Amino acid sequence: MNELEPGKMIKDFTLYDQNLNEVHLHDMQGRKILLAFHPLAWTRGCSKHMKLLEDNYERFRAANAVALGISIDSVHSKKAWAREIGVENTLFLADFWPHGQVARMYGMFDEDKGVSERASIVIDEELKIRFVKIYETRSLPDIEEIFDAMRE
Q: How far apart are CA 24 and CA 101, in angstroms?
């Protein structure tokens, strides 16, 4: 977990979003970024988590921030799921293959379950880590805590 210490530069990655677009983390420099790891699409808790991001989309925009939902699901699964739960603006990234590579890189992969932890990583405009929190699987992140971390 020491690689995710506040103040350190976040390691770069490239994943595809639900619209088949490549997303390079370091291309987002100049904006605040929330990496919202969640275990598995199509589950009640993860649906609530991602809807929380979508419901706060305009607040993220106003804060010069972007929220990225990341799980081990495929791009096509993410696309269908986003449509099913009514997410139109929030990007869902597919950490599908190699299976959970980004979650593993950040120490967020649960080897026993084969999915990522539920976690939030807030990154500042210079790509430095500002906040890291891992949650109980059934818990939802406190959105106000995330916005507080973005303001600090």
A: 14
Q: CA 90, CA 104: separation in Å to the nearest integer?
A: 23
- Count other C-beta atoms under 10 Å from residue 9's C-beta: 11
Query: In the CATH scheme, what is the homologous superfamily, with its name and number, of domain 2-151?
Result: Glutaredoxin (3.40.30.10)
Q: Where are the strands (E) in 106-149, listed by range?
A: 109-110, 115-116, 118-123, 129-135
Tell me which of 34, 41, 46, 65 is the catalytic residue. Answer: 46
Count CB neighbours of 83 within 10 A.
Answer: 11
Full-model pTM: 0.96
Domain boundaries, the chain: 2-151
Q: Is 13 a catalytic residue?
A: no
pLDDT digits (tens, 9 = 90+) for 103-123: 999 999 999 999 999 999 999
3-state helix, strand, coil in the chain (%, to 5): 35, 30, 40
